[in-house]
Specification:
By secondary structure, the protein is mainly β. It is built from 2 helices and 12 strands.
């Protein structure tokens, strides 16, 4: 089932403060691993997910994404992958950021905004991504050996 949002709805969901409501501590995923962390809006009306996935082979290839309504990708940060071709044919090198666009979901990518540039550490990039997505009640994600 595809969930379609207007641009206004998607922008409002991305702008909502997101909170992790637990005491759990998480380990940054190992190579080939994934982590899904549930998040909620302050009033608990909206549920979100912070997803972290890692490549099996390339140490620096990571993906961070925030989803709403279980399946709608609001924002996704791709690190060290292939260039992305947007629907208009423009090619965007990696790393790049996908943000929901009405009618296209997460099919459009853009070069990294300034808030991400100059950050070389993967865990710091993940933290900057959480800031970008307004995760204010952040989960504790402990750095692994290869993070």
């Amino acid at each position: 089932m595809t969930i379609l949002l207007t641009q206004q709805e998607a922008d409002a969901l991305l702008a909502l403060e997101k909170h992790f409501l637990g005491d759990d501590r998480f380990a940054f995923p190992a190579l080939g691993g994934a982590l899904r962390i549930p998040l909620h809006s302050s009033d608990r009306r909206e549920e979100f997910s912070l997803d972290i996935t890692r490549s099996r082979i390339l140490l620096e290839k990571n993906t961070f994404q925030t989803r709403a309504r279980k399946a709608v990708i609001l924002a996704r940060l791709d690190l060290a992958g292939q260039p992305h071709r947007n629907p208009d044919g423009e090619e965007i090198d990696c790393p790049h950021l996908h943000v929901y666009r009405e009618g296209y979901s997460d099919k459009w990518a853009m070069p990294l905004p300034a808030v991400f540039t100059g950050i070389e550490d993967t865990v710091e990039l993940m933290d900057a991504f959480m800031d970008y997505c307004r995760v204010v009640g952040k989960p504790v994600i402990e750095r692994g050996l290869f993070a």
